Amino acid sequence: MIDGFWKLEGDHFSITMTSDDKGKDLTQRGTSTIAGDTQEQIVDGHTRRLTRNTPAVPRNLMVGVWTYPHPAGGTAYEEYKADGRFLFRLPIGSTACRWRVDGERIRITVGAKTEDAKWRVSGDRLTIEGSKGAETFHRETAGIIKPR
Question: Which side of the chain, N or C, has fewer Cβ within a 10 Å radius?
Fold first, then answer.
């Protein structure tokens, strides 16, 4: 998951993302051409073709969810929101687990390994603090990734 912001001026676009824990931003720049439900982007000399997954917005054809086969495998989802937010999602395989909550404690068992941790929800963020530090998860907007 990567969150950021996008801008489009003519056929030139940019996507800015926070790239590290020090808050440094990374900006990618390229061109975008949209014809019907196909978008061709050229970024750093690399071309990719995206397919529209949501209805077109007449005043801004970039807005919506676009998909493409990702080089790492699977289908990548890029959502360009009307307010300038950019959401990148690349679903990966998952492992079945069991979990149980008791107050602010959560016990997660994956295979033969069990870990106890603290958990909290703040807005659309779930944070789990365990022996390896804290991990924060973002609640997805309904519909960005279609169920299998």
Answer: C
Spatial separation of the C-alpha atoms in residues 69 and 91, rounded to whole Å:
11
pTM equals: 0.64
Asked whether 5 and 15 are in contact (CB, 8 A), the reply is yes
Alpha carbons 109 and 113: distance in angstroms, whole number: 6
The pLDDT of residue 41 = 95
Q: Do the Cβ atoms of 66 and 57 come closer than 8 Å?
A: no
Q: What domain range includes position 6?
A: 2-89
Query: How many structural domains comprise the chain?
Result: 2
Answer yes or no: are the C-beta atoms of 115 and 107 closer than 8 Å: yes
Do 84 and 111 reside in the same domain of the chain?
no
Q: What is the tens place of the pLDDT at every residue in 107-147?
A: 999 989 999 999 999 888 899 998 888 888 877 665 555 55
Burial class (CB in 10 A: 0-12, 13-18, 19+), 77: buried
User: Across-strand partners of 35?
Assistant: 38
